[in-house]
Description:
By secondary structure, the chain is mainly α. It contains five helices and two strands. α2 packs parallel to α5 (90-105).
Amino acid sequence: MDLEIQKRVKDFAEKEGKENLVVILGGAEAEAAGLAAETVLTGDPTFAGPLAGIALDLAVYHVVEPIIKDNCDAQVYDDQCGMMEMVLDVEAICDEMDAIRSSCAA
Length: 106
């Protein structure tokens, strides 16, 4: 997650309250999605960005996870994410997201 996005997420969390935000990721690789999820949960693990040492503990999901897909209009989801879903390793992404949420909740 680049520094500008970290700043925007931090600003939104401060303005709107973390209980009012859900971060939806769309990265193509499980590891990258996991790193971004960790950043909005526990802070920037590289200690380089605006979220260094700042745990926002935000709700975070990847767009291909069933909880997100099932809450979208099926036609819109297919139009916007269908092709991406066919080429991504959806299972690996879902497993990584589950693992990050579980490890950060502990």
